[in-house]
Amino acid sequence: SYLCNIVHIVFSLIGWIRLAGSGSTRCSGRVEIYKSYYDYNSYHYRSSWGTVCDDGWDLQDAEVVCRELGCGIALEALGSAYFGQGTGTFLHSNVDCSGSETSIDNCRYSSYISYSCHHGRDAGVVCSETLPEPTISLYSNEVTWGQDVSITCSVSEKFSGGTFILQKTSGSFSQSQTSSTSSVTFNLHNVNFDHDGLYQCQYMKTSQRFNSSSVRLSVTVSFPKPRISICPVGEVTWGQTVEITCSVSTQVLGGSFTLSHIQGSFTRSQTSNTNSATFNIPNVDFDNEGLYQCQYKKRGSSREFSSPLSDSVRLSVTGKKNKNKYGLTLGKIKILTIVT
């Protein structure tokens, strides 16, 4: 009847699946499917367990079987009746799964069974039972700018073989390695502040990706004491411009230099793409007299790093005040450099 046909079609779409055969376990064995099919010999619908022909059978097809059974991921896709020969009819051949399907019935397959398919070609699977849980490890979570860093990603040994992906959780950094073992090591060379942040491993054997927890890589830097110098050296005439140069010995460029007047409120900052910066003090007068120091700073991804303060230099204003014929006061400025 029409109603009976509807029931059989729905049952065909749902189906049942099991793993059987010699040496089979809950999550490994010969793939068998229970479903309804139309028997053209008797012109009736029948329901029975049947097997899958191994033509085109691969790891992506096995992945879907393992997922449908709740048996983790596919470790092997086996053919040639590895778990012994089944009985009954072949229900699927030329199975072609993408690996993301929830049931083998959602994959492309052929219901037409070629004469080359026989029970000596029954397909089987070996599933992992549990899902992979990748781990990530760092030899040291804090490294100095310019060093090399090794980050290891690993899974349980039963998941040997697959692709490991190392990703920074923010940004576009991503590296991948395919391995025949259960771990890989990623080497980051000459790290800088762009490498600072959280990292995560992903493991992929077929279409699924499994994520590890995150670890933080902190990149630090230690700056030496900057050098400070004044030009011109010696006496200068009232109203001239004085140049104070700060420099630091480092390869970490792109930071800022700060020049401070120790006794007063004078402070200036200057960003530099080199390892030095020059500050100009125009039209110097006696208000500029005093000690000066400088400091180098560089902002990392999460905090700022500062050098020690430089030694100080003194800008001394000396000389006798005189008035010229116009009644203007003249003077001289003497610059002395004192290293403390």
Automatic annotation (TrEMBL):
Q: Which SUPFAM superfamilies match?
A: Immunoglobulin (SSF48726), SRCR-like (SSF56487)
Q: Which InterPro entries match?
A: Ig-like_dom (IPR007110), Ig-like_dom_sf (IPR036179), Ig-like_fold (IPR013783), Ig_sub (IPR003599), Ig_sub2 (IPR003598), Immunoglobulin_dom (IPR013151), SRCR (IPR001190), SRCR-like_dom_sf (IPR036772)
Q: Which residues form the Ig-like domain?
A: 134-222, 226-310
Cell compartment(s), UniProt = Secreted
Q: Does the keyword Iron apply?
A: no
Q: Which domain of life is it from?
A: Eukaryota
Task: Detail the disulphide connectivity of this chain as listed in its UniProt entry.
Answer: 53-117, 66-127, 97-107
Task: State the UniProt keywords alphabetically.
Answer: Disulfide bond, Glycoprotein, Immunoglobulin domain, Receptor, Repeat, Secreted, Signal
Segments passing through the bilayer: none
What are the residue boundaries of the SRCR domain, all occurrences included? 17-128
Q: Which GO terms describe its biological process?
A: zymogen activation
GO CC annotation, single: plasma membrane
Q: Which residues form the signal peptide?
A: 1-22
Subunit structure, briefly? Interacts with LGALS1 and laminin.
PANTHER family (alphabetical): SRCR DOMAIN-CONTAINING PROTEIN (PTHR48071)
Return the protein name: Soluble scavenger receptor cysteine-rich domain-containing protein SSC5D
